[in-house]
Amino acid sequence: MKKLKRSARLVEMTQYLLFRPHSLIPLTTFAERYNSAKSSISEDLAIIKEVFEEEGLGELNTLAGAAGGVKFSPKVPKEISLKFIQSLCLQLQQPERILPGGYLYMSDIMGQPQYLNEIGKTFASAFAGREVDVIMTVETKGIPLAYATATYMNLPVVIVRRDSRVTEGSAVSINYVSGSNKRIQTMSLARRALKEESKVLIIDDFMHVGGTIHGMMDLLAEFKATVQGVGVFMESCEAEEHLVDDYVSLARLYGVDSKTKQITVEPGNYFD
Predict the structure, then answer these.
(1) Which of 82, 85, 112, 150 has its CA 20 to 30 A from that of 42?
(2) How does it assemble (predicted)?
(3) What is the reported pLDDT for 177?
(4) 37-55 pLDDT tens trace
(5) Which domains does the chain have, with CATH numbers?
(6) How many Å apart are CA 151 and CA 165, to the nearest integer?
(7) Which class for 175: exposed (0-12), middle (13-18), buried (19 or more C-beta within 10 A)?
């Protein structure tokens, strides 16, 4: 690559780091890429590190030694995430979101890239200190959230299916009790999708009682995997008891009143 002025190099290096979260990048990579001395690259990284921390974009950590380099970890301050979630709560309380049966319409939120990015970044911050190999979710509404989180954690995504598919080969299937309607349902995961003894982070869009998440935990036991964390975008507070104890929620749904057209949504336990 041709030699760039420092201002241009800083822009390009910042973009390079943002698109490679949690990846160890040797200083020689930047030195060769920009045809610059390592001392100059170190000065550039110090500037980028300062801006990342001041603007709440994340942390830029330096690892010394021959095998060292720099690693960018996206991490948004909790107060910034709170403001974002509070704005979403206001949107989710709009009366026109009430569906027949007292359900809450959220599909438009799950379809907005800017919202998904912020949610994914928040989950990545919440579970930043945990050792995770893979993100898991169940089809279908949790898939966008899982991929958004995986983008900021630089991890693969595994999707649990409602039924096994021929195109995915042999699979492990279990029956579980749906927490909302107490029905027996089935979920399936291809054997090739997850290595045994993997460390898994479960991400889902909504948790009523927690039957689906509890089912995923039982399914993971068949793979001798360990659950390193559970993140849900919204939890229902109408349930008397949750089947899952240790989880992070970004929003809480306290109730949907079809008669008065009132919806009560507040920030979740992550902000307690």
Answers:
(1) 150
(2) Homodimer.
(3) 87
(4) 999 999 999 999 999 999 9
(5) 6-74 (1.10.10.10), 78-271 (3.40.50.2020)
(6) 26
(7) exposed
